[in-house]
């Protein structure tokens, strides 16, 4: 059992796979466990979960620096990105980072039949390449290697060129302080650094960008009053970003409410400092330069990869390299375990 930032986590030394699956604190585990028990004994009614959806939405809004009325709740990052991709005009010119996570790039590429053109450039070249494009879509922290986009340069370039901006913060929210009301759309899946069960995601929508989106998955839960939107026409969707909601995955929202409400009270500057210090400490121990990210990507031999696994290190293989992530529940013991396994 570990303690971090006022919470406890039932995770041992060597868990460095938060970029794949984040570990909930024990309060979130209890909340989901209790919800499963209530389900098992038939103690729930559907409307009881609305409070969890609201709590999670409010907390996510706080974490990215927007008003909760401007947040839509979905189930996955690609589903929410897909709303934007399917709504852009025919012939839209989209700029993305080379080797971007495909849940961000594929929804736009799938619109090629409408003349939507997607161009890839290096991450550092995004701001200088925005002229001549209508929209830039980028992960704030890259999934493959943890590279961090220059948000201020991106913001300035967008203001200069008029390009719309879609940010995916799936690998950033939860360890990086974020204040993103300037972006047109901000998407995040919850089950990584936000420490939620899989099946919850959100999209913050700048108010002047909301009417550009077609609610392709319009459903009863997106109604102005969901419980009065179950049967029959006319269409009566919410005036706010809730018009893009999907009917929630109940147990995921229970866990999300518990995890995000706690995270929204944590000092994210302190979390970033903690996580980046550990990651850079590992890089320093390996004779590699600091990168200022919570994610480390290493080119390891097969022998070294086996040594890591044998030592009990949980990691992931991405883009032909070993990916390690340091979150708020990690400690110097995790760094030392990796260095010992790699004999440094």
From TrEMBL:
<protein>
    <submittedName>
        <fullName>Aminotransferase class V-fold PLP-dependent enzyme</fullName>
    </submittedName>
</protein>
<dbReference type="InterPro" id="IPR015421">
    <property type="entry name" value="PyrdxlP-dep_Trfase_major"/>
</dbReference>
<keyword id="KW-0808">Transferase</keyword>
<dbReference type="InterPro" id="IPR000192">
    <property type="entry name" value="Aminotrans_V_dom"/>
</dbReference>
<dbReference type="InterPro" id="IPR015424">
    <property type="entry name" value="PyrdxlP-dep_Trfase"/>
</dbReference>
<keyword id="KW-0032">Aminotransferase</keyword>
<dbReference type="InterPro" id="IPR015422">
    <property type="entry name" value="PyrdxlP-dep_Trfase_small"/>
</dbReference>
<dbReference type="Pfam" id="PF00266">
    <property type="entry name" value="Aminotran_5"/>
</dbReference>
<feature type="domain" description="Aminotransferase class V">
    <location>
        <begin position="47"/>
        <end position="286"/>
    </location>
</feature>
<dbReference type="GO" id="GO:0008483">
    <property type="term" value="F:transaminase activity"/>
</dbReference>
């Amino acid at each position: 059992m570990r303690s971090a930032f006022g919470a406890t986590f039932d995770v041992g030394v060597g868990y460095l796979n938060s970029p794949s699956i984040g570990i909930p604190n024990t309060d979130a585990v209890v909340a989901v466990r209790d919800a499963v028990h209530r389900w098992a004994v038939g103690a729930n009614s559907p409307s009881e979960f609305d409070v969890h959806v609201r709590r999670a939405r409010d907390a996510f809004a706080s974490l990215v620096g927007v008003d909760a009325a401007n947040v839509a709740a979905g189930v996955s990052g690609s589903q929410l990105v897909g709303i934007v991709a399917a709504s852009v005009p025919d012939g839209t010119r989209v700029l993305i980072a080379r080797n971007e996570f495909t849940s961000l790039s594929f929804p736009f590429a799938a619109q090629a039949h409408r003349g939507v053109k997607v161009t890839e450039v290096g991450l550092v070249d995004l701001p200088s390449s925005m002229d001549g494009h209508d929209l830039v879509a980028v992960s704030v922290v890259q999934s493959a290697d943890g590279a961090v986009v220059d948000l201020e340069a991106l913001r300035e370039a967008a203001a200069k060129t008029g390009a719309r901006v879609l940010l995916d913060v799936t690998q950033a929210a939860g360890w990086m302080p974020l204040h993103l009301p300037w972006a047109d759309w901000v998407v995040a899946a919850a089950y990584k650094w936000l420490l939620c069960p899989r099946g919850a995601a959100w999209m913050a929508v700048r108010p002047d960008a909301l009417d550009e989106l077609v609610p392709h998955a319009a459903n009863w839960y997106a109604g102005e009053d969901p419980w009065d939107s179950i049967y029959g026409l006319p269409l009566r969707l919410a005036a706010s970003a809730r018009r893009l909601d999907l009917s929630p995955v109940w147990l995921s929202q229970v866990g999300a409410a518990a995890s995000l409400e706690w995270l929204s009270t944590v000092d994210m500057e302190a979390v970033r400092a903690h996580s980046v210090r550990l990651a850079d400490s590992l890089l320093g121990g390996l004779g590699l330069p600091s990168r200022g990210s919570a994610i480390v990507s290493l080119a390891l031999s097969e022998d070294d990869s086996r040594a890591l696994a044998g030592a009990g290190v949980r990691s992931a293989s991405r883009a032909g390299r070993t990916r390690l992530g340091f979150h708020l529940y990690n400690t110097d013991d995790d760094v030392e375990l990796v260095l010992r396994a790699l004999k440094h």
